[in-house]
Design a protein that fits this description.
There is one protein chain. With 180 residues, the chain is an alpha/beta fold. It is 33% helix and 23% strand. The strands form 3 sheets. The protein has a 7-stranded mixed sheet, with helices on both faces. A 3-stranded mixed sheet has the order 2-4-5. Strands 9-10 form a two-stranded parallel ribbon. The mean pLDDT is 96.
């Protein structure tokens, strides 16, 4: 499998602080094991901090990322997403760019709200962290909430929570392999 995906590049987005460590680390490990190249973006290139202690030095700021350079976009969840990612207009632009370019768009935990706010979930099956506000945001954006760990609808992948991180990572790899 690794040789198949060696030319694939994914932009992983994390909140500057309070991202979910396992929602970043598990999918990243799975993607790298498949040969995928990862670039990490956040609100700035200052060190980003996970809720459980992980520290990441982002490669690029969200505002400087260009979707044309990547095969897909993966948005990590965690409490920091609500503050740092939900309202981020540059991230919404990246999501729309990825979607318009028929690239993979994936988000886990509370981050599928970013996809809803970017207006790419209209009439799409999707999932999000099981929280009233998150579900309401998804539905407000036209998404069809489904109570499952991971939902794949075309080139959009959404996942519910940290327990789904491994399954989410495999779904992203499977989707990338389909477009080889």
């Amino acid at each position: 499998m690794s040789s198949e995906l060696e030319d694939k590049k994914i932009l992983m987005v994390v909140a500057q602080d309070n991202f979910r460590d396992e929602e970043y680390l598990e999918p990243r490990d799975i993607l790298e094991d498949a040969g995928v190249s990862i670039t990490v973006a956040s609100n700035s290139t200052k060190e980003a901090y996970g809720a459980l202690g992980a520290k990441i030095k982002p490669d690029i700021s969200i505002k400087d990322a260009i979707m044309a350079e990547f095969d897909g976009l993966v948005i990590v969840g965690g409490g920091g997403s609500r503050e740092h990612l939900w309202p981020n207009k540059d991230l919404q632009r990246l999501v729309r760019d990825a979607f318009d370019q028929d690239k993979l768009v994936a988000a886990i935990c509370i981050s599928p709200v970013v996809l809803a706010r970017a207006k790419i979930l209209e009439d799409r099956d999707c999932t999000v962290f099981k929280d009233k506000e998150c579900i309401a945001e998804l539905e407000k954006g036209g998404g069809l909430y489904t109570d499952k760990d991971v939902v794949v609808d075309g080139n959009i992948i959404t996942a519910r929570d940290p327990k789904a991180a491994e399954k989410f990572g495999h779904a992203v790899v499977d989707q990338l392999a389909e477009v080889v």
